[in-house]
Automatic annotation (TrEMBL):
UniProt pathway: Isoprenoid biosynthesis; isopentenyl diphosphate biosynthesis via mevalonate pathway; isopentenyl diphosphate from (R)-mevalonate: step 1/3
Pfam families: GHMP_kinases_C, GHMP_kinases_N
Protein name per Swiss-Prot or TrEMBL: mevalonate kinase
Family: Belongs to the GHMP kinase family. Mevalonate kinase subfamily.
Key words, A-Z: ATP-binding, Cytoplasm, Kinase, Lipid biosynthesis, Lipid metabolism, Magnesium, Nucleotide-binding, Transferase
Domain GHMP kinase N-terminal: from-to ranges: 89-157
UniProt cross-references to InterPro entries, sorted A to Z: GHMP_kinase_C_dom, GHMP_kinase_C_sf, GHMP_kinase_N_dom, GHMP_knse_ATP-bd_CS, Mev_gal_kin, Ribosomal_Su5_D2-typ_SF, Ribsml_uS5_D2-typ_fold_subgr
Subcellular location: Cytoplasm
GO function terms (MF aspect): mevalonate kinase activity
Documented EC number(s): 2.7.1.36
Highest taxon in the source lineage: Bacteria
SUPFAM superfamilies: GHMP Kinase, C-terminal domain, Ribosomal protein S5 domain 2-like
Length: 323
């Protein structure tokens, strides 16, 4: 077969949900934030090794956070490679080696599975010398996400390739106006989240209590829309209040944990404008909005409250820039 390159590469990054997790699965809006400092890089090449599995591909996972992904991801990623080859029209069955270097801790609601899938999709397209549109990459990553998580909204598949905060609803994306500066601090509770369990827990609650689903979705949508307006109008205090109120909504639904609640309380006590759980829930991370001058104190208090690691993601207003 024609080999366009000897090696192909692709990359993606983490994401954090600011508002709207879970509700987004039911068609409500969500706001997501790219976390560019947590990256995934995939390298794909031709393998001389014939001891491959049914997918003719061997995966090697590197990076301190990626090792637990090896066994659970191998089948899902093998199926993804098959999907990519079919999309690209690769009819041969070459043996492939794919190395995935992941800095995103798994099971934290930061999009590690979607980011790994996107990096692999782009690396294979590069290896085979084919163009891969954003929409095609999204569709392929979304296929892998459904295998990993069951019902997947698509927000992760979009956000791990986004270069700026984004609004997502029912597959549609647009970039919100950012009229204020600030700093988001993400704090890792150290506990693996359980997205599938959280989704089932929420669904069971909706079935058990009449009107619970409509009430949850209405409130989540209101908070996301209020946050969107606060972002555009340069009102960080209001944005922070929306985050905290969204946490209370998710906590009342049983999706938070004692460790996450402790992180949220610590961030607020240290002067954060708002804080909440982020991602699927039942573990994972909290996210806090703070002003730059409070960031040191907030970070210190988060670690004192049990955060195993933290990351700072700047929010920079662009309302005065050409769009």
């Amino acid at each position: 077969m024609h080999r366009a390159r000897s090696i192909g590469s692709g990359s993606a990054h983490a994401k954090a949900i600011l508002l709207g997790e879970h509700a987004v699965v039911y068609g409500a809006p969500a706001i997501a934030l790219p976390v560019p400092q947590l990256t995934v890089t995939a390298s794909a090449g031709w393998s001389p090794d014939t001891a491959h599995d049914q997918y003719d591909v061997l995966f090697t996972m590197t990076g301190s956070a990626s090792r637990p992904l090896v066994t659970e991801a191998s089948d899902r990623l093998g199926r993804l490679v098959t999907e990519v080859k079919a999309f690209l029209g690769v009819t041969e069955s070459p043996h492939l080696d794919v190395i995935v270097d992941c800095a995103i801790p798994p099971g934290r609601g930061l999009g590690s599975s979607a980011a790994c899938a996107r990096a692999i999709v782009l690396a294979l397209a590069d290896l085979f010398g084919r163009e891969m549109s954003q929409s095609a990459a999204y569709d392929l990553v979304q296929t892998a996400e459904r295998v990993a998580h069951g019902r997947a909204s698509g927000v992760d598949a979009r956000a791990v390739g986004a270069s700026a905060p984004m609004m997502f609803q029912s597959g549609e994306v647009h970039e919100p106006l950012i009229g204020c500066d600030g700093l988001f601090i993400i704090a890792d509770s150290g506990d693996m989240g359980r997205t599938k369990d959280a989704v089932e827990l929420l669904r069971a609650g909706f079935k058990e209590h009449a009107g619970a689903q409509e009430k949850f979705l209405r409130r989540a949508s209101e908070l996301t829309d209020e946050a969107r307006r606060a972002l555009a109008e340069g009102r960080p205090e209001k944005l922070g209040a929306c985050l905290t109120d969204n946490h209370e909504l998710l906590r009342a639904a049983g999706l938070s944990t004692g460790r996450i609640d402790a992180l949220v309380e610590a961030a607020l006590a240290a002067g954060s404008l708002g804080a909440k759980i982020t991602g699927g829930g039942l573990g994972g991370c909290a996210i806090a909005l703070t002003r730059m001058e409070q960031a040191r104190q907030v970070t210190r208090r988060l670690h004192e409250a049990g955060a195993t690691q933290t990351w700072a993601v700047p929010l920079k207003g662009r309302s005065h820039h050409a769009r």
